[in-house]
Amino acid sequence: xxxxxxxxxxxxxxxxxxxxxxxxxxxxxxxxxxxxxxxxxxxxxxxxxxxxxxxxxxxxxxxxxxxxxxxxxxxxxxxxxxxxxxxxxxxxxxxxxxxxxxxxxxxxxxxxxxxxxxxxxxxxxxxxxxxxxxxxxxxxxxxxxxxxxxxxxxxxxxxxxxxxxxxxxxxxxxxxxxxxxxxxxxxxxxxxxxxxxxxxxxxxxxxxxxxxxxxxxxxxxxxxxxxxxxxxxxxxxxxxxxxxxxxxxxxxxxxxxxxxxxxxxxxxxxxxxxxxxxxxxxxxxxxxxxxxxxxxxxxxxxxxxxxxxxxxxxxxxxxxxxxxxxxxxxxx
Length: 332
Ligand SMILES: [Zn+2]
Fold this sequence. Notes:
Strand order of the largest sheet: 1-2-3-4-5-8-11-12
Strand content: 15-25%
Helix content: 40-55%
Bound molecules: zinc ion
Structural class: alpha/beta
Low-confidence stretches: none
């Protein structure tokens, strides 16, 4: 058994307290491989941003839990070598069982999400409470994220055809009964690169889809009932049109892609929203650059020559998010 403190990681408790008070959100970037991890650490060290490196259960199977644990340890040492020790959290994204959460905690995770949002309310409460009791009783306190409300879209194993907005009337009871440290809510964000159907959107003159706005009224109602309590937004990629166009220019096909406009995320991050999850944008950035290299240099076969530029683009994207969207730059 490895505690996260042995790896040099931290939990989210103090980070969220500061983020809520300071009106910014901490980036939660997903990773499955070395290049993504390097880009996350480089970008967050350079912008002096705290960071949550998160792993879904699918990513954990893909990468192997021993490798992940040691990559997290390596991330802490790498940040120090780059010249600035930023706070780093290793977080389980969408944990779907008590057993998985326990296994992650025993393998160095400093934070876990237990996602019981698809269960009936009372079952969600019972499962989330059980995970909190375990996580909070460790010698080194592990933070727990719960979820109320269902996001539409597809992300690894998590998928749902329809979204259900979080009911503000349930949030106080849920937090009190479970003891969660933060709460993921559904106010109109969505997993994946097709966050809305075209018929839910309007179009600009040049055909770009504009999604329906986030439900800031629900967020305000939740904040009123849970003053200062850390709120999490999933599915918050903006699906930049330049990456979609680059992918399509070099042979890909990503029709009807649409994300959450960055101005809306900027607005959310100034509220009690203190963790914003971004995965699809990173996937798009890497794919766009790799396709470009393959198309422009057909004789290239050294993986470093396409994964390297993809990593550089990812770093650029994350620096932009920290500085212009989440406001986390300079907060480490
Ligand atoms: Zn999610």
